[in-house]
Amino acid sequence: MKLQAEFESLVNQMHLKEKETALLRKQIAGLQEDNERIGRMYKVIERDAFQERPTQARIMASEPKKEEPKGVWKMADDDYKTPLFR
Questions:
Q1: Model pTM score
Q2: How far is the first Cα of the chain from the last one, in angstroms, to the nearest whole number?
Q3: Most buried residue, 3, 43, 56, 64, by CB count within 10 Å?
């Protein structure tokens, strides 16, 4: 009887260890996926860092400036009730 109880206890411990091992393997797989995703993001950022991209300042500097006609009423940003004459 005592031997039978000990055997069942060991079987239960083995099943618990198997479940724990399965969970740890899932966790490891998730961490590996995260690591691969981070590696791909790093490569994209590294590649893009060395490519020259036009900034908003360069885009605005390259566009021809539009001049407003004289005598146009322009509203002030902070006080839109008081027009400013340019």
A1: 0.49
A2: 103
A3: 43
